[in-house]
Amino acid sequence: MLIARDVTKEYMSGEQRLAVLHDVSFRIEQGSFVAIVGPSGSGKTTLLGLLAGLDTPTRGTVLLDEADLGKLSENDRARLRGEKVGFVFQSFQLIPTLTALENVQVPLELRGTNGAAERARELIDRVGLTGRGHHFPTQLSGGEQQRVAIARAFANSPKILFADEPTGNLDNATGHRIFELLQSLNSDGGSTIVLVTHDFSLASRASRMIRLLDGAIVEDTGAEAAIPA
Amino acid sequence: MIGLSRSIWSLAWRESRTARRRLLLYMSSISLGVAALVAIDSFSANIIQSVKDQSRALMGGDVSFNSSTPIPPRVDSLFDSLARHGVSFARVTTFPSMAVVPRTSGTRFAQVRGVTDNYPFYGDIVTEPAGRWPLLHQGAYAIVDPALLTSLDAKVGDTLRLGFGTFTIVASIRDVPGAAGIAEMLGPRIFIPARYVAETQLLVFGSTAERAVLAKLPNGVDPDKFVKPFKKRVEDQQVRVRTVTQTEMATADAIENLSNFIGIVGLVALLLGGIGVASGVRAFVARKIDTVAVLRCLGASSGQVLAIYVAQAAAMGLVGAAVGAALGVAVQFLLPRVLTDFLPIDVRVTLVPSAVLTGLAVGGWIALIFALRPLLALRNVSPLQTLRRDTDAEVLRMRWTDAPRIIVNAAMVLSVVAIALERARTTRQAIGMSGATGVAILALAASAGLLSWAARKGLRTRWPYVIRQGVANLYRPGNQTRAVTLALGFGAFLVSTLYLVQSNILRRFTVAASESRGNVVFFDVQQDQRGGLDSLVRARGYDVVQVAPVVTMRIAAINGKRVSDMTPVGRGQRGRASWALRREFRSTYRDKPASSETIVSGKWFGERALKATPDTGEISLEDGIAKELNVKLGDVITWNVQGVEIPTRITSLRKVVWTRFEPNFFVVFAPPVLKGAPTQFVLLAQVKDPTGVPLLQRAVVNRFPNVSSIDLTAIKRTVDRIVGRVSLAIRFMALFSLAVAIPVLFSAVSATRR
């Protein structure tokens, strides 16, 4: 459901043209758990941005559920994100002036969905934070904040969830618990999960691993199907 | 769709939790501007309504006929024929006199009003003891201002001498329609029956007296329609005609002046407030970048993002405007108390909903449009900022060809111009005001740029670290140099303008006492009294500084064209001003210019003019009145001097220092021209010791009861009171401007702390 075809991203640095990604191609099927791993500077965060439609490639195509992201306007991509995509960030990125419950409600409110509060409460329960819904982010621990973020990411029942170093700001034990939560959401709910990390040990626990180095794929443990031309 | 906007609203409300107080503080920048506008609009409306309600009582009738000479017989017969058609007439003769209470030897300059028994037609006069007004006409009685009793140490029942007449004081005035104005400060009022005016013998020809004939029309007759058939004829006889509507219009006109001035102050304050809002919201926007980026990731369109923050700004702007409106209403209720001495009427204070709503709308709109400018930058915040964060300045940068930005900028300019147009008297004034503000803003922005450039060029590495950091912050990316310069500069602009206006207004009032050579003036001195008065003053060891002859006259024609054939114009318009053309002139003749005068064009009377009596005599005109009459050197003015027509040519124009306590004249004749004309005199004396003044005044009035006198101290005291009030008002407004500047500065500085 997510296809990257010859994706290239270049930046202008003064007079020079720098390529952060060259000709990256792969295909991710619905329901898979993919980890994109590489050292810092390998282009993995840039790739994440392109796959999620936060940015557009210099050359190449990204197809999300058959929609060509490069051809959509900023607002159209935003709408698509609201319908099909969930996000989890390294620094949690919760809105500080809203409670945990209200944070989870945001994606639903942006689409005008009814029963937002109900659904938010369900999700808070699902991530194991029953009774903490009325607390503000500053009143929650790192692990708890990340769980709120995960609950929020699932608010609109997204087809695909992108996670950028979700355990980066957490200690080992908490990080593992978060990872396990993601895995259970993948196996129970069937959502596709694309996780970006520099932590090799974490990445190897995913069902498929794509390794990036200097903007190109050097290893792909799950490159079974050929990319349709 | 409705569900969507409701959720956006609740999201906007909840998201604003911690920012609300700060946003409100930024928005309070406009509160005081709104307060000024609401206060002055409400107050003006109250005054105009009060005048409408009280105009008949103020005037004492439906129509008022006024003249400074006795009513001509032709006009009197017009009144007789009108009386036969059901119109009632009352007469009031007002003239100055020295009031003497023999019991206490108290002497005071006063204003006497001789009234017929049907005066006033409207309004009630309340006396102390009560109910004594009808008593007035039963004998030689007087009803006086309480101020007179105090200054003469007199009481009800005392005998009062006015000129050659004797009266008994039967009551003091507690309430007369029309509050005591400034004129009453100088000369308290004395009411006597009209039939006893002749007894005072003060109304010889040429003495200053104002005659008013008040008409009461039958029910349902419109005053303006009533006077139309004969208005011009009457005015040609030098009798002024005024209806109730004219009084209302004249007051409305006067109020409009004040209202426009304060409205402009309010507008500038509002603009200053807008700058504060813009600075504050810019700081607010920088703090919201992260949240906006997340919202975009979660599916918010740029429109939704903008809607959320515009909603917050709009809500706080409305609250700020509401606070301002409430403050304005509070001031409106206080103003009459402060201004009571200056107002000729009692102002009834009521809430004026239209003023409040206008203030809310204008204030809310200004807050919104100035907030919108920095808010627009939020549209450009990319969701990528969640992954990799650029500096605030880079994230918020907008291309200046960006269409919505251009539209908002244009809307800001148009809003300012629109408000200026609505407030100013003329389109030219409004455009001028907007233009001046635009120039001020550009100049300030340019100087800010200059400062940044100078800081960059002038920075030296050998300076101490702290200094270097401070100076570098003036030009570093994201610096707020322009915003703070604008806020400070505009605030200074506002305050200094107010002080400039204050000194302009007050300059007119400063009585240059030290420059004057005399301190007591005697007037209405008859020809046969001149010598006696002169000796009396000298006998007491005082100096007679100046004796000026006074001849009363009117303009009959200018350059051959009769005044009755001219179309005079109102104040401030081009042409011959009506008030100057129709007034009674009190002119003098001299062979030398006075020490308070300078010739600005032409030449003073030469040898020939001073000796012979030519066909066309020479006159010297004061340059201000020359402008009002639209005449220049060489023009011929024909004067009507008590029935005799005398042509004269303007041979010089003078500048007169009016504020010196000396007899000053619009028109000075070469002496031979007025030989034989009926003349009175004005005498200026210098009395060195202050206690000698009342004694001298008493002595003069005992010997010459028709001669009135004023001493400089009395005038100075009155002027000081006026000056004090005006200064207080201006100082209040300056304080108000400073108060506006505070939240604005706070907002501007907020933007620097990030």
Structure explained in plain terms:
- The complex is a heterodimer of chains A (229) and B (754).
- With 229 residues, chain A is of the alpha/beta class.
- Chain A has a single domain, classed as 3-Layer(aba) Sandwich (Rossmann fold).
- In chain A, 33% of the residues lie in helices and 28% in strands.
- Chain A has seven helices and ten strands.
- In chain A, the strands form two sheets. A six-stranded mixed beta sheet of chain A has the order 6-7-8-3-9-10, sandwiched between helices. In chain A, strands 2-1-4-5 form a four-stranded antiparallel beta sheet, with helices on one face.
- The model of chain A has no long low-confidence stretch (mean pLDDT 88).
- Chain B is an alpha+beta fold.
- Among the domains of chain B are: 1-56 and 256-398, no CATH class; 93-209, no CATH class; 543-686, no CATH class.
- Helices cover 50% and strands 19% of the residues of chain B.
- In chain B, the strands form two sheets. In chain B, strands 2-3-8-5-7-6 form a six-stranded mixed beta barrel. Chain B has a six-stranded mixed β-barrel with strand order 12-14-19-16-18-17.
- Chains A and B meet through helix 1, helix 2 and helix 3 of A and helix 1, helix 10 and helix 11 of B.
Q: Helix count of chain B?
A: 23
Q: Helical element count of chain A?
A: 7
Secondary structure: number of strands of chain B = 21
Radius of gyration of chain B: 34 Å
Largest interface: A-B, 35 and 33 residues
Number of domains of chain A: 1
CATH superfamily heading of chain A: P-loop containing nucleotide triphosphate hydrolases
Q: Care to give the gist of this entry?
A:
Chain A is of the alpha/beta class and 229 residues long. Chain A is built from 7 helices and 10 strands. Chain A starts with a strand and ends in a 9-residue tail after the last strand.
Secondary structure layout:
The complex is a heterodimer of chains A (229) and B (754).
Chain A: E1 2-13, E2 16-28, E3 33-37, H1 44-51, E4 59-64, E5 67-68, H2 74-84, E6 85-88, H3 100-110, H4 116-126, H5 142-153, E7 160-164, H6 172-189, E8 192-197, H7 200-203, E9 208-213, E10 216-220
Parallel strand pairs in A: 3-8, 3-9, 6-7, 7-8
Antiparallel strand pairs in A: 1-2, 1-4, 4-5, 9-10
Helix pairs in contact in A: 3-4, 3-5, 4-5, 5-6
Chain B: H1 2-15, H2 20-27, H3 31-59, E1 63-67, H4 73-84, E2 88-101, E3 106-115, E4 126-128, E5 141-144, H5 146-152, E6 159-162, E7 165-175, H6 182-186, E8 189-193, H7 197-200, E9 210-216, H8 223-227, H9 231-236, E10 240-243, H10 244-297, H11 302-339, H12 353-375, H13 392-396, H14 403-423, H15 427-458, H16 465-472, H17 481-507, E11 520-526, H18 530-539, E12 543-558, E13 561-562, H19 578-582, E14 585-589, E15 597-602, H20 607-611, E16 617-622, H21 623-629, E17 636-641, E18 644-656, E19 667-669, E20 680-686, H22 692-703, E21 708-711, H23 712-750
Parallel strand pairs in B: 3-8, 5-7, 14-19, 16-18
Antiparallel strand pairs in B: 1-9, 1-10, 2-3, 2-6, 2-9, 4-7, 5-8, 6-7, 11-20, 11-21, 12-13, 12-14, 12-17, 12-20, 15-18, 16-19, 17-18
